[in-house]
């Protein structure tokens, strides 16, 4: 938080006096009270849960009694606590995350299909920007894209997953994020606020997905015996490397969009591919350099990615039956009052901001 702006401006010039640099570091906090034995019942072995609870209490006691000065004791307890905690996390957690993303996508689709369509125009016009139909639709598609990204990560970790499966998942991810970008880019609210930042996030993920798709498409194509297959594969690898570099710029653009955020660390499949793509692109271009010189025309056109039918769909969701005592007209009236209150408070906040400036 602020690391980028604290870098000295004159890059490349030696200075006798080093300017002060400010770096934001998260503080350590004493863990809150939590009944781990109840929360983890049936999830982890009883002995593991008891050991976790014991270590958690030990961390709390050391931190509170010493004010955090007993660094060695804290570090020992934290390292053992974290090793036990990460041992509970399994691949099933990632699969559960995919299921939750499908549920979230289903909730948003239901909201668009069954709720927004029942709003009168005067109420629709008062809805916040993040409740607009195009934004909700974008979030629904984004959830499917990120679910596919997790599936690709599982495939990369699996020895049984073939290159064709990985390529298919990467190509599906490209389609999802492309649809999400097109859905949001035509929306009026994208010119400001969180919608603008969301658009940059989706574009960043789209470039990452496309880099992965070209990488795996190159690996599949390179298995051919013809020289043209190797040339086409090298084109894919070089395109993947270029897209990866562009995705890093897009990530930086996303972070700078207000509200300004810190660049997240590489994780999942992109942590793996950020190292593999440049290595493979360099090695293959060196290996087949003589073919590239002979096939100059092939280098001028990038191979098209294969088109696959999308696998993930939003999970169907239906609301429970409405009680007989509730009135649709009364609900609409209450919603209208709520939105009027929101609009008034929002206008007051803007007026206060203008006065402050």
Automatic annotation (TrEMBL):
CDD domains: BRO1_Alix_like. It comes from the Eukaryota. Residues 346-357 have a biased composition (Acidic residues). InterPro entries: BRO1_dom (IPR004328), BRO1_sf (IPR038499), BROX (IPR038898). Residues 335-345 have a biased composition (Basic and acidic residues). Residues 319-357 are annotated as: Disordered. Residues 22-322 form the BRO1 domain. Belongs to the BROX family. This is BRO1 domain-containing protein.
